[in-house]
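Re: the 463-residue chain
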Amino acid sequence: MAAALLVCAGVALIYSEDIMPFIITSGISLLLALILIFYKHKISDSENFSRKDAYLTVTSSWVIICLIGSLPYIFSGAIPSYVNALFESVSGFTTTGASILTDIESLPKSLLFWRSFTHWIGGIGIIVLVIIIMPSLRISGYHLFTQESSLQEKIQPRVRSVGSSLLKIYILLTVLEIILLMAGNMNFFESVCHSFGTVATGGFSPKNTSIAEYSPYIQYVIMLFMLLAGINFMIHFYFLKRDFRKIAKNDELKFYLTTIAVIGLTLTIGLIVSMNKPVEEAFRESFFQIISIITCTGFATADYLLWPEYAWMIIFFAMFLGGSTGSTAGGIKMARHLVLIKNIKILFRKQISPHAVMQVRLNNNRLSDEANNSILTFISVYFLIFVAGTLLLVFLGIDGSTASSSVATCMAGIGPGIGSVGPVGNFAHLPEAGKVILVMLMIIGRLEIYTVIMLFSKTFWRN
């Protein structure tokens, strides 16, 4: 964090802007780091690091980073309200992309860069856990790796080596997108910011109109990289290793691509028939919006609330899908939906053949009853939290469509929603209590619910 803030100070120097908000925040972050490093040396290496410690470490790390990340907004005076500054920071690090800013382009370039940089840092968070935290704790790589991605494939025995490869892939995708965006006449600054937001599936743009004013070429490039960012990063790893056999048997990848294709084509046909849009424009707008929503990126090229009602209702339900497990995307994740569908199919088959022995299989492997129940429970808890969050916002006086979509989009880390928080709106008008609730939901959703919820149980704090 201290180093990242100094990078932003460098950007401020380039554009002749005030560097002190970043210098002061970097100093605070560095001081906190030194305190933690000093405290670490006081702890014996023989002390056990339990699963409870892992939950607490992951959650507290994200909370502390988000708190520090809000300080540049406050010190610069760009966002004087601490609740608003925290909302923007949490939205950045959790790669949500929801914003309270009404005039994004009025911010200094250095702050716009910081906004997008928080996405990139947040997206790489799970990889940092793999290559830095787990080796230093000398515990099983799988144990901590599941904290943000509970279905992620177990990578043994060379966790650190694979983690380094995933980091390189993350950087490679970012650099490739920057180059391709610049080839489409987007300037370097905007190319970097948009690439940070795309690869991290975040959605912050330095432009008020997001991606809408850019050329079709730019939109297709961003569409492609959103699609790639929503894929399990182990698929990219296998691709570079030319292990196509593992890619071919990945059920989640097939389901992910099929779902996007089916919904995208449905919306394309709907726009052609209902709104008489040209085929290419209808195809581009439909697929851009649906890829952006499913991968939880949140970029927009059109106001889908102006589409026929059935079209934006489809988009609303797509907010609950999420990208692939092991990607930077949020949401419920495709693998869990696939397991749910397989359970439903088995349930119907057993109505016909009650004595048949049927098992849920994923990637040609039998899913244990414990894992299967955990997935189904996760989906149930996810929707219970969604309902509870929606009711809380409604009690604060927010209309139903805005309340429900705000909760859905913040839990999944998407950004734009329905109602007054649509693709051309923002979250500035919501009451502060509502913003605090949404901040909590962004963190809960990003850390896969259990990691945070466990901290509020009495059992967790017992010896």
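The first helix runs from residue 2 to 14.
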